[in-house]
Amino acid sequence: MAQSNIKVAVQKFGNFLSSMVMPNISAFIAWGLITALFIPTGIFPNESLAKLVDPMVTYLLPLLIGYTGGKLVHDQRGGVVGAIVTMGVIVGADIPMFLGAMIMGPLGGYVIKKFDQLIEGKVKAGFEMLVNNFSAGILGGFFAILAFLAIGPAVTTFTGWLVTGVDWLLATGLLPLTSIIIEPAKVLFLNNAINHGVLSPIGLEQAKTTGKSILFLLEANPGPGIGVLLAFSIFGKGTAKRSAPGAAIIQFFGGIHEIYFPYILMRPMLFFAVILGGMSGIFTLMLLGGGLASPASPGSIIAIMAVTPPQGSAYLANIAGVLVAGIVSFVLSSFILKTGKQKDEDIEEAARKMQEMKGKKSSVSNVFAANTGTMPEKVSKIIFACDAGMGSSAMGASLLRKKVKEAGMNIAVTNTAISNLPSDAQIVITQEELTPRAQKQVPNAYHISVDNFLSSPEYDQLINRLKNPETAELQEIVEDAEAVVPSGDPHTDDALLREENIFLNQEFATKEEAIRFAGNVLVKAGYVKESYIDAMIARDEMTSTYMGNDVAIPHGTEEAKKDVLNSGFTVLQVPNGVDFDGQKVRLIFGIAGKDGTHLEILSGIAVTCSDMANIEKLVEAKSAREIMDILNDK
């Protein structure tokens, strides 16, 4: 458990570092292109346009990083203060302050966030703007002076040590050994942290002096990855072999290195292939004098060529570095695959393992997803499915049902537990983590995965597909569709949600604490037995009960339905939010459902919470009655 927590903490820290740089990569590329084109040794030397180079690298790029870092911590106000204090570290140093911006930007955002929390609810009406503007200005100015006097010189010294260390590695020929760390770290999803958090700031300092830096290619080189994928294309087996050619195109030309990680996870021996491939590529770059003028992101061969300095020798060196890395990786990968005893590669399982290691949704995992089935020509029923069939699926079904009705289509939208999916199901919608289970239950259905039940774009995409001329002759739905929510006012049963079960201004350290609080409320209200609380915790561990739009709906598992005495709800207002697996939740609806009697009010809650304006009203409500009125749409 401790090891897992350390891994998650490292990944979150690495993700935070890269999140300051990644949104601004286009600005780095713009600077690199202007540098390559217009400096005296560029393709089209131009003394006037070359004047853009120094201000961009000195002021624009660090300020963008500082602003982004502050905004990550405390939204717009954090971004503004982050930029102010970053200016102090810029002026307080005589080198580009990328590392300084990565320190001061988040620090500025943190300072103003803590100040805002300190004065929350204490400012008199009419003075909010005055306090907001002057607090940001005073704190920003103070920390800008601190950065100018202390942080800037300190970061300058530290950066000097790093550059000296890199120069020493180059001089002694030891730089290729960095692949021993870089290549495994990529598969552990620390690639962006290493590339943009460490290598890019040092590389930019080198590039400002020499016009290029080899550091930009240590992690971005697509050679090791393309070697693995080409080996699978020829010597792989099963779905891995079939999917490898497409993955190779995405990796090499699209620059999405993440796509080859599952292949390595299937055969851990392949770590040696990418490590030796990376080392060979770096050695070649050192030998021929390769390097880039600015970071290449994504790590595509196209991006690499675009930011290669405009000299023939630089192009030759960089292409050779990629080719050598690819060839070495391919040869070793082929040997490993040909001599291995594994008969078939389960790329889907490896992709799921990769996503678990990443700790969040993978942008390329859908490439390996099993066949989702064929869209039926005539659709009469859409089924939402979740583990228990009474919480997230009911909310999703109510929202889609509303969209179907607005589109004028005659399609039944129902919800159920995955274990109860009928064999004749046509379209099944589930949370991403549950889709494999649903596919096994009804393999002939058309499956759709969503990650946000309250505002998923998949809903509108599905509606658009269903409205196609090819689906114009839809079957008439049966009037007694089992799980359709009855028409009429869905909010009339006060026994389901009572004022005494609504709690305002709550604070929770963890999601488990919040879920247990909600469970205890349900127990005290007579809705459930005490054993239901542990079932709520277990259900959230299976699949997060975060629904999107700052809303979570913790409820019990399928097996815990026997512990429900009566249907009922509790509402917890958490203005400062509580973390649900990386998602901020400000409204918690604890649910106990018996015999479907809770579905009507849950449907109304889903529709209400699909609008962020209503979410803000609920979070800002000052009384339980006010929350009741908003939910009842009075």
From TrEMBL:
<keyword id="KW-0762">Sugar transport</keyword>
<feature type="domain" description="PTS EIIC type-2">
    <location>
        <begin position="13"/>
        <end position="345"/>
    </location>
</feature>
<dbReference type="GO" id="GO:0022872">
    <property type="term" value="F:protein-N(PI)-phosphohistidine-mannitol phosphotransferase system transmembrane transporter activity"/>
</dbReference>
<feature type="domain" description="PTS EIIA type-2">
    <location>
        <begin position="495"/>
        <end position="634"/>
    </location>
</feature>
<keyword id="KW-0472">Membrane</keyword>
<dbReference type="InterPro" id="IPR050893">
    <property type="entry name" value="Sugar_PTS"/>
</dbReference>
<dbReference type="InterPro" id="IPR003501">
    <property type="entry name" value="PTS_EIIB_2/3"/>
</dbReference>
<dbReference type="GO" id="GO:0090563">
    <property type="term" value="F:protein-phosphocysteine-sugar phosphotransferase activity"/>
</dbReference>
<feature type="transmembrane region" description="Helical">
    <location>
        <begin position="25"/>
        <end position="44"/>
    </location>
</feature>
<dbReference type="GO" id="GO:0009401">
    <property type="term" value="P:phosphoenolpyruvate-dependent sugar phosphotransferase system"/>
</dbReference>
<dbReference type="InterPro" id="IPR013014">
    <property type="entry name" value="PTS_EIIC_2"/>
</dbReference>
<protein>
    <recommendedName>
        <fullName>Mannitol-specific phosphotransferase enzyme IIA component</fullName>
        <ecNumber>2.7.1.197</ecNumber>
    </recommendedName>
</protein>
<keyword id="KW-0418">Kinase</keyword>
<dbReference type="InterPro" id="IPR016152">
    <property type="entry name" value="PTrfase/Anion_transptr"/>
</dbReference>
<dbReference type="GO" id="GO:0016301">
    <property type="term" value="F:kinase activity"/>
</dbReference>
<dbReference type="InterPro" id="IPR036095">
    <property type="entry name" value="PTS_EIIB-like_sf"/>
</dbReference>
<feature type="transmembrane region" description="Helical">
    <location>
        <begin position="133"/>
        <end position="155"/>
    </location>
</feature>
<keyword id="KW-0812">Transmembrane</keyword>
<dbReference type="Pfam" id="PF02302">
    <property type="entry name" value="PTS_IIB"/>
</dbReference>
<feature type="transmembrane region" description="Helical">
    <location>
        <begin position="313"/>
        <end position="337"/>
    </location>
</feature>
<dbReference type="InterPro" id="IPR013011">
    <property type="entry name" value="PTS_EIIB_2"/>
</dbReference>
<comment type="subunit">
    <text>Homodimer.</text>
</comment>
<dbReference type="Pfam" id="PF00359">
    <property type="entry name" value="PTS_EIIA_2"/>
</dbReference>
<dbReference type="InterPro" id="IPR004718">
    <property type="entry name" value="PTS_IIC_mtl"/>
</dbReference>
<feature type="transmembrane region" description="Helical">
    <location>
        <begin position="80"/>
        <end position="112"/>
    </location>
</feature>
<keyword id="KW-0813">Transport</keyword>
<feature type="transmembrane region" description="Helical">
    <location>
        <begin position="270"/>
        <end position="293"/>
    </location>
</feature>
<dbReference type="InterPro" id="IPR002178">
    <property type="entry name" value="PTS_EIIA_type-2_dom"/>
</dbReference>
<keyword id="KW-0598">Phosphotransferase system</keyword>
<keyword id="KW-0597">Phosphoprotein</keyword>
<feature type="domain" description="PTS EIIB type-2">
    <location>
        <begin position="380"/>
        <end position="474"/>
    </location>
</feature>
<comment type="function">
    <text>The phosphoenolpyruvate-dependent sugar phosphotransferase system (sugar PTS), a major carbohydrate active transport system, catalyzes the phosphorylation of incoming sugar substrates concomitantly with their translocation across the cell membrane. The enzyme II CmtAB PTS system is involved in D-mannitol transport.</text>
</comment>
<dbReference type="GO" id="GO:0005886">
    <property type="term" value="C:plasma membrane"/>
</dbReference>
<keyword id="KW-1003">Cell membrane</keyword>
<dbReference type="InterPro" id="IPR029503">
    <property type="entry name" value="PTS_EIIB_mannitol"/>
</dbReference>
<keyword id="KW-0997">Cell inner membrane</keyword>
<keyword id="KW-1133">Transmembrane helix</keyword>
<dbReference type="InterPro" id="IPR003352">
    <property type="entry name" value="PTS_EIIC"/>
</dbReference>
<keyword id="KW-0808">Transferase</keyword>
<dbReference type="Pfam" id="PF02378">
    <property type="entry name" value="PTS_EIIC"/>
</dbReference>
<feature type="transmembrane region" description="Helical">
    <location>
        <begin position="161"/>
        <end position="182"/>
    </location>
</feature>
